[in-house]
């Protein structure tokens, strides 16, 4: 009995033994959205955000439009000379010309994105789909506070 107590007391104070005896914590994994789990083409479902302003040498501002694939996390960057809906639509057309037309777009509530969404609703996509295999684009706006997630505003 004394030997067992002595062994237990030595093992309970041994730092190396305590380190190896600990179990790793496991955290429950969150349920993933269906558009990340399913198999999609690259850039079929995208996230859209703006970075900037960037200050150019000539004194003007520029922004970078970031297109992120939701399934593969591939990234595509486009240059914006202004924050107008027309400039964004030009960037979006360049994106579609280089990549494929996305079916779902996730973005925040910036005014130029909302204007582009309203413009895309005005286009007759059913008529365009008759002549080609282009799918209708679905815009999903994330409900973020003004200034974004990290702005510190409530």
From TrEMBL:
Listed Gene3D superfamilies: Ribonuclease H-like superfamily/Ribonuclease H (3.30.420.10)
A molecular function (GO) term: nucleic acid binding
Top-level taxonomic group: Eukaryota
Protein name: Integrase catalytic domain-containing protein
Phylogenetic placement of the source organism: Eukaryota, Metazoa, Ecdysozoa, Arthropoda, Chelicerata
